Amino acid sequence: MPLLELRNLKKYYATQKAVDDISFSIEPGQIFGLLGPNGAGKTTLLRMITGIFYPDDGQILFDGKPFNPEKDIQHIGYMPEERGLYKKMKIGEQALYLAQLKGLSKDQALQLIKEWFVKLEMQSWWNKKVEDLSKGMSQKLQFVTTVLHRPKLIILDEPFSGLDPVNSNVIKEEIFQLAKSGSTVIFSTHRMEQVEEICDHIALVNKGQKILDGTVKGVKQRFKKNLFRIGFEALPAINTNQAFEVVKENNDQSLIVKINDGYTPNDVLRFYLQGNTPITSFSEILPSLNEIFIQLVEGTPASRQFQNVTA
Ligand SMILES: Nc1ncnc2c1ncn2[C@@H]1O[C@H](COP(=O)(O)OP(=O)(O)OP(=O)(O)O)[C@@H](O)[C@H]1O
Fold first, then answer.
1. Parallel, antiparallel, or unpaired: how do β-strands 201-206 and 184-188 relate?
2. Which residues form the ABC transporter domain (predicted)?
3. Does this complex have an ipTM over 0.90?
4. Does residue 42's CB lie within 6 angstroms of at least one atom of ligand 1?
5. Which ligand 1 atom sits nearest the alpha carbon of residue 306?
6. Fold of domain 4-221
């Protein structure tokens, strides 16, 4: 049973169809990437999933039942892109306060905060104020306060912004661990390389509509262009054959070939094996999510045009 199921969700602002009939479901333990260009409708979707906005139409099912924000919010951790920390409050007190809001007792909260602060090397921060933290440090604090109560659903909007590579890796590892121990993660970002590394499933939204979803592996397979890289000890002189065409010659003695319809990698290998140049490598080139993203939203204006709700 999915942990979260969106059925035909709609949210219209006065001048804009922000979310226009979006459906998808997320299984427990998945790390799900919600992608889309600026203005696509991601934040509006996340705000409905966290009970900040009511949908105008459609249904949200959480753990198999109609979503009840007042009750279910205890099981959701949301780290929004904009920071929501109290600047003047001390860090330890703030973490304690936010954890108790999520239903933990003071003792439970204290123990968990100490564990997380040790794990993320934040012990010396306890008596500092949030206003004394750098952007990356407050990002770490916000991550801890989002996941501390072990929510079933963790929603992270651009969680790595402001983090250096070392801290990004630390947080990435924690996300994997949380998913392994059963939490479901929704991860919203524009950084496609992070999505490839972290997510197992994705949905791509554009202009308020879902235009693609599936496993990262499956999506890449769907958009592949039959391109292969063949490495040689020295580039062969003859490359003409009906099975393929050479798209590019690389300086590292490799060729990029596109296999024609009706032929297979074996046909290409057979051709080159007949020659005298030893082959050193052979691998398929799959498109990056970035290439797929750009291909699908190409032609879309950089910032979304207003679309009249009556249209
Ligand atoms: N409060 C609002 N009133 C009117 N229109 C809004 C409001 N909030 C968002 N919109 C519009 O709804 C659309 C979707 O916005 P949303 O913030 O959900 O997009 P997004 O995918 O999160 O974008 P970004 O990646 O830039 O954060 C945009 O066209 C935006 O102009």
1. unpaired
2. 4-232
3. yes
4. yes
5. 29
6. Rossmann fold (3.40.50)
Q: Indicate whether residue 292 lines ligand 1 (CB < 6 A).
A: no
To the nearest 10°, report the CA torsion of 115, 120, 124, 125: -100
**80 in contact with ligand 1, CB cutoff 6 A:** no
- Segments of the chain assigned to CATH 3.40.50.300: 4-221
* CATH architecture under which domain 225-285 falls: 2-Layer Sandwich (3.30)
pLDDT, tens digit, for every residue of 87-116? 888 999 989 999 998 889 999 999 999 999
Spell out a b/e string for 74-107, using b for 16 or more CB atoms within 10 Å of the CB, else e: ebbbbbbeeeebeeebbbbebbbebbeebebeee
Question: Atom 7 (ligand 1): residue with closest C-alpha?
Answer: 13
Percent of the residues in the chain that have a pLDDT greater than 70, as a whole number: 95
Place of tokens 């696509």: 40
Residue nearest to atom 10 of ligand 1 (CA): 18
Cβ-contact 62, 4 below 8 angstroms: yes
| 82 vs 196: which has the higher pLDDT | 196
Mutate-to-test residue for ligand 1 from 9, 10, 13, highest number of ligand atoms within 8 A of CB = 13
